[in-house]
Amino acid sequence: MAVTRFDITGIGNAIVDLLLPTNDDFLNRHDMPKGGMSLIDADRATKLTAAMQGGLTASGGSVANTCAVAAALGARVAFLGKVAKDEMGAAFRREITGHGVHYATPPLEAAIPTARCLILVTPDGQRTMNTYLGAGGEFGMDDLDETVIAASAVTYLEGYLFDPPAAQAAFAEAARIARAAGQKTALSLSDAFCVDRHRDGFRRLIAQGVDILFANEAEICSLYQRNDFAEAAKDAARDIKLAVLTKSEAGSVILHEGQEIAVAAAPAKVIDTTGAGDAYAAGFLAAYTKGESLHAAGTLGAKAAAMAISQIGARPPAAELRTLVG
Prior knowledge:
alpha/beta; UDP-N-acetylmuramoyl-L-alanine:D-glutamate ligase; five-stranded mixed beta sheet
């Protein structure tokens, strides 16, 4: 039997978030497609950062968010991701370890700044993200901690990090390490934008050893190039041992060994959709790694997601999250 020190180890972008409530006029002035995610260069990142004075700063990154929320829900969590040896990198390290997440990845020595995600939230709850990958995109094989991965019940991979070839190789190796240790690998497709860019690569990685897939409607339809969610779900059920498919206010569907388990969305007043999927994955994995039923795991995921979208920012306060697990 595999020995576990951690319930979840996340591998993803180590990003500092800058979040600003704004309006459609701001998006139009800066030529941003509402609700989208755009990769930007250092120059645009600098200009947008200056335009977003008064925003809320916090450590972020999709899987890092999942790790922080899962830790608040009682899971034993580690994170692997790259920051620079700069002020923002130090802030990221302080915050994620402050959430109780084990984080020991050495900082990047090169003169590349820590990654940042500039998030604009409009009154309808939509978030528009502009991401500068910076040091986070330098994650590679040498940054894998084989001891941590082998001792983690689930290693959770972030689709947003799939762009650099070095990270793609590291993902495949992380899945191999987990499999050799008798542990599981999970993958988040992260965004339909990512799937459109790396559809074949994601499908290869899934075939090589992904045990759990997290995707929303747009992402799973893009992965299988289907216009119909039900057809894409059938494809996922064929290819993946456990597929967790979210459908916003319509809840989620969990596919496992011929079963289709429907989970209702938890009631919420939508303030900011940032981090909803991250929180859902945190709740699901926190319950799943404790041996709870798939329906119970989905229910905790739905409750965590509802809490996330009911406030500004991707990470609800730990004290509030703890109320979901008693």
